[in-house]
Design goal:
The protein is built from 12 helices and 12 strands. Strands 3-4-5-8-9-10-11-12 form an 8-stranded parallel beta barrel, surrounded by 7 helices. β9, α7 and β10 form a beta-alpha-beta unit. α3 runs parallel beside α6. The longest helix has 25 residues.
């Protein structure tokens, strides 16, 4: 997990990614001090790439009123402040995830009633078809051709702003039942035009958006796409479909597929477990022949090392463990007693003490094992 990786013109110092995690702390779409501290701390924590949470190109594309956007100069400047800190004070790279909430928008903050509509002040929703996410959610308006053109232009404008803000990496969110995912998923796409029906047709509009963004994004900087590789529901997309979806995005110029699953329908019944989504990343990497990012219940260095060492994925995105521990990568490296990671200079005395303490604990554990059964200790 500590091996470097080059994608296009970008060099990552290791394979650990801080997954984009919603913070619900933006104001009018603008990130602030919370995001500077949150993202800055994790950039100092050893990961190779830090991803900003899903950011909308238009006000109505936010998931909640606390989600960020990138449709004006003030938002761009606020992001620039964070990017400059990461570049100036750490060796991490920083990426932005752009997406539109679609039928899952205008909902409450994550620690309130998640995915449920706001008590008041709801805004209108757009989607592939007029299919609500749940019985309490609004019925979205099916996008017209004019809606699609306007939205593509908004994604392109946000892409240019992301480049101007200095981001190293750009990801398009095409998963979890949000706008572009609603086109890809057969359970939410009931269109009878050229954007509905077959898998190729359902991917047509997401590919149009991606291609327009790729043309506007600097050629030397990587782009990834997050997909739901399994809808976990009857009639939904399967891992076989995910391979076909990834192949289409690869042909369009996608560098990395960020492989998630589910959250496209409330009928989903995922089977959870340790590294439970990694098999989907494995199939895409080895059947399509492209870089993948594994995510989902990866919580230890052993997990990441086994995934990358076995060639199942090229990057591991760590979400909840990074909420609990901003320096997850540094601490996992210390447990392995490897110093192949760079600590911020102001923290070096803490590093040395941590390594000594872990070494002491491991020696004591070995001594206890020897006393209990010498034959079991090599």
């Amino acid at each position: 997990m500590l091996l470097p990786l080059r994608v296009r013109g970008l060099a990552l110092k290791n394979r650990i990614v801080v997954s984009p995690m919603a913070q619900y702390k933006a104001r009018n779409g603008e990130v602030g001090d919370w995001h500077l501290v949150h993202l800055g701390a994790r950039a100092l924590g050893g990961a190779g790439l830090v991803m900003v949470e899903m950011t909308s190109p238009v006000p109505e594309g936010r998931i909640t009123p606390g989600c960020p956007g990138l449709w004006n100069d003030a938002q761009q400047a606020a992001f620039r402040r964070i990017v400059d800190f990461v570049h100036g004070e750490s060796s991490a790279r920083i990426g932005l995830q752009l997406g539109h909430s679609g039928p899952k928008g205008s909902t409450q903050l994550g620690w309130e009633q998640i995915d449920e509509p706001l008590p008041s002040g709801n805004w209108p929703l757009l989607s592939a078809s007029a299919v609500p996410y749940g019985p309490q959610n609004q019925v979205p308006q099916a996008m017209t051709r004019a809606d699609m053109d306007a939205m593509t232009a908004a994604f392109v404008a946000a892409t240019r702003r992301a480049a101007a803000a200095g981001f190293d990496w750009l990801e398009l969110h095409g998963a979890h039942g949000y706008l572009l995912s609603a086109f890809i998923c057969p359970l939410t796409n009931r269109r009878s035009d050229e954007y509905g029906g077959s898998l190729e047709n359902r991917c047509r509009y997401p590919l149009e958006v991606f291609s327009a963004m790729r043309a506007a994004w600097p050629a030397e900087r990587p782009m990834s796409v997050r997909i739901s590789a399994h809808d976990w529901a009857p009639g939904g997309n399967t891992p076989d479909d995910a391979v076909a979806i990834a192949r289409l995005f690869k042909e369009a110029g996608c560098d990395v597929i960020d492989v998630s699953s589910g959250q496209t329908t409330r009928e989903a019944r995922p089977v959870y477990g340790r590294m439970y989504q990694t098999p989907f990343a494995d199939r895409i990497r080895n059947e399509v022949g492209m870089l993948t990012m594994a995510v989902g219940a990866i919580s230890e260095a052993d997990h990441a090392n086994s995934i990358i060492g076995a060639g199942r994925a090229d990057l591991c995105a760590i979400a909840r463990p990074h909420l609990a521990d901003p320096a997850w990568t540094l601490h996992e490296a210390a447990r392995l007693q490897t110093r192949a990671v760079d600590w911020p200079n102001p923290y070096l005395s803490g590093r040395d003490q941590l390594y000594r303490e872990i070494a002491r604990q491991q020696a004591m554990q070995t001594a206890v094992q020897v006393a209990a059964d010498p034959a079991e200790v090599p």
